[in-house]
Give the backbone structure.
Amino acid sequence: MLERGKNLDVNHWAISNIDIQGYYRVAIRLAGATTRNISINNFLINGVSSDSNPSHCFKGGVQIYEAAHHITLQHGRVINNVGDCGSSYQQGDGIEADDRQGLPHHLTFNDLVVENSGDANFDLKADFVTMNNIISLTQSNTRFAYKFWSYDRYLCTRCSAYGNYSYLITLNSAVGTFFDFEPIFDIANGQYIEERMYLPMKTIEHKVPILVLK
């Protein structure tokens, strides 16, 4: 974990063959503008919790904060990031990037499975994001397969979503480009609710159900 608010020079790290399970808050956090050129390969991150091993409400598998950049995650699985939030809004993201105190950029995600998050499997406030061969799964009630915010350069090639989501793709004042998107299962038992509109994004080969918030 590279904690927020630190001034550490972390450059050209390659980390492989990781198995992290049963953490309270977050498995991997990368933070700071001098955190860059990081490659994480071949990993399993499993946030499974229990009554004797509870989770923080804002639980996350991988968090990228405070302008960390040129980060690559590949050949991995991130599962079961569900916060224990009581009656509050259900939190928990599989892979999260946040732009408070600095914009993360140049993030690459290759050959990943992200599954069973409380809120979103991907919740990204970042720029220059490239995603390839991504599977987003839920076996319960993950709200969002892909949630992108505020920026114009999200590219997702051969991405898919499987399960009962509230929304497959949500763009919050963002522009996403999806090639070969495959919603393996439609949500809400195959019925599109009114807010789940078919709208073209900047470039798209297949129209998919998305929610666009301006």
Q: What stands out?
A: The first strand starts at residue 10 and ends at 21. The CA atoms of residues 116 and 138 lie 5 Å apart. The chain has a mean pLDDT of 82. The two ends are 34 Å apart (CA to CA).
